[in-house]
């Protein structure tokens, strides 16, 4: 069964500092990987996704993520954080199974940005 | 990508009652998904709803508690039945396949 681990429950960074959110997955084949952001009271917004090809994926809002098969990781990065990036971030792995498709989410990382 | 309209956006309900959440998509989709996000938790898949067949429920979720309808390729409903305070959560619908998923804005349910 697929699973996702986000080891950091909370992260605090200063505005303008760089950011890396960790994500490790477990899946038997090549996974489809996603990062979503959820602002307070809002739904989920897709930041970026990886299916195949270039292991460095660019997303919206200046985010990028790198797929490392050897480490089963898909860490999210941003070179300079803005106060508006404060939100909860979810890593997810997708799978196409015999009965359909499903996403499995990590437990999320709450990002706080200090001004 | 598809645009999803989900309603209600929030509700406060009495225990023992039921609430039906609606999800409307602006295009035809094969599969729709219903998730639950309990306070401070991640998202957990409740069930997958395909048009013309019964929904497929994940472990820990049963049809009697969370009946789902999928009358056509653009619409689905999730009912939370006989509610208790433990059902207080955000419920989200989603559409997509292994290559991408879009989520509704969610229904924030409080059971008192």
Q: What does this entry look like structurally?
A:
The complex is a heterodimer of chains A (115) and B (112). Chain A has no helices and 12 strands. In chain A, the strands form 3 sheets. In chain A, strands 2, 5, 6, 10, 11 and 12 form a 6-stranded mixed beta sheet that branches. In chain A, strands 3-9-8-7 form a 4-stranded antiparallel beta sheet, with no helix packed on it. By secondary structure, chain A is an all-beta fold. Chain A has strands at residues 3-5, 10-14, 19-21, 24-26, 32-38, 44-50, 56-58, 64-68, 73-78, 87-97, 100-105, 109-114. The termini of chain A are far apart. The model of chain A has no long low-confidence stretch (mean pLDDT 90). Chain B is mainly beta and 112 residues long. Chain B has strands spanning 4-7, 10-13, 19-25, 31-37, 43-50, 56-57, 68-72, 75-80, 89-97, 100-103, 107-111. In chain B, strands 2, 4, 5, 6, 9, 10 and 11 form a 7-stranded mixed beta sheet that branches. Chain B has a 4-stranded antiparallel beta sheet with strand order 1-3-8-7, with no helix packed on it. The interface between A and B is medium-sized, with 24 and 25 residues.
Radius of gyration of chain B (CA) equals 13 Å
Radius of gyration of chain A: 14 Å
The assigned structural class of chain A equals mainly beta
Low-confidence stretches of chain A: none
Low-confidence sequence ranges of chain B: none
Strand content of chain A: over 45%
Main beta sheet of chain B: strand number and arrangement? 7 strands, mixed
Greatest chain-chain contact: A-B, 24 and 25 residues
Reported for the largest beta sheet of chain A, the result is:
6 strands, mixed
Spatial gap, N to C terminus of chain A: 41 Å
Shape of chain B: globular
Task: Name the features.
A: 115 residues; mainly beta; 6-stranded mixed sheet; 4-stranded antiparallel sheet; globular; B: mainly beta
